[in-house]
Amino acid sequence: MAFGTVLFAHAGADNAVDDFVTQARRARELGVSQVWVAQQFDHDAISLAGLIGAGVPGLEVGTSVVPFNPRHPLTLASQAQTAQAAAHGRFSLGLGLGAHDIEREAFGIAPPHTIARLREYLTILRSVFDTGSVDFHGAEFTASPAWPVTLAGGSPVPVYVAAMGPKALQVTGELADGTLPYLAGPRTIAEFIQPTIARAAEEAGRPSPRIVAFVPAQLSDDVRAARADAEEQLRFYATIPSYQKVIAREGIDNLADLAAIGDADAVRRKVQSYLDAGATDVVFSPLDRSRPDDALWALAGSL
């Protein structure tokens, strides 16, 4: 098992890329084994992950997550291989299915057939990364390039999907290396995510998938105030149907119940509940994003 943290940009940085690399270097010094960065409209997560991997030897780095729309899988495959070469084999590609409302507003698109697109997307990536070639003609994508598709030092690339629904987990188990659930509590992992993705992987003859649980976290002596902050930050997710299902499965009233909040012992107990449920890795998603959190990173490094 491994423990890591999500890195976030800080508004006061003179150079965002330098700041990310500095944060990653500090996290590594404190014992953190893996860091993850999310795609935003102001930075490219795959490029950033490659730069972090090149700048911080020994640190695993991944994207959580890059929505696969609107990038073509060949474009994304070349970006991922470049990051993998830069990171010398320590890069992991985390993909997301995207959100129609956000993509419609930002790009003017809202592609239907999300699960079919995911299956074809992963099929193309799998072919590029595993065989070094691709000749695919599907209903959603065509990938049949006349030029080489592999980069020296750029493969293999582990591929993960932020999958929580049954159809997405089925495809992920068949074609990817694991899932990256955020705000999926221990009961959801144990009773739904783990058995669903493990069964799909076994039926496809693939290795047991990783389940990298992303857990909101904050070390604090003032638990009441920290929980209030968590409730405010996580309120948006409670409006999304997939997270409403998580709330129902967990039997909780508030998504803040899934966060790791309190002193070090309380956070360790929460982490252990995710591991007991079947998570192979736990990644802290800091609730306090105003500054680098040395204390939380040190805790992750000590687990």
Spell out the key features of this protein.
Luciferase-like_dom, TIM Barrel, 12 strands, eight-stranded parallel beta barrel, oxidoreductase activity, acting on paired donors, with incorporation or reduction of molecular oxygen, two-stranded antiparallel sheet, 46% helix, EC 1.2.-.-, 303 residues, 16% strand, 11 helices, F420-dependent oxidoreductase, MSMEG_4879 family, single chain, oxidoreductase, alpha/beta
Care to give the gist of this entry?
Helix content is 46%, strand content 16%. The chain is α/β, with parallel strands linked by helices and 303 residues long.
The CATH topology corresponds to: TIM Barrel
Count of alpha/pi helices: 11
In CATH, what is the homologous superfamily? Luciferase-like domain
Termini separation (Å)?
Answer: 10 Å
Q: For the residues shown, what is the average pLDDT?
A: 95
For the CA atoms, what is the radius of gyration?
A: 19 Å
Q: Would you tell me the structural class of the helices and strands?
A: alpha/beta
Helix content: 40-55%
Which regions are unreliable across 5 or more consecutive residues at pLDDT < 50? none
Strands in their spatial order, largest beta sheet: 1-2-3-5-8-9-10-12
Number of domains: 1
Share in β-strands:
15-25%
Oligomer kind = single chain
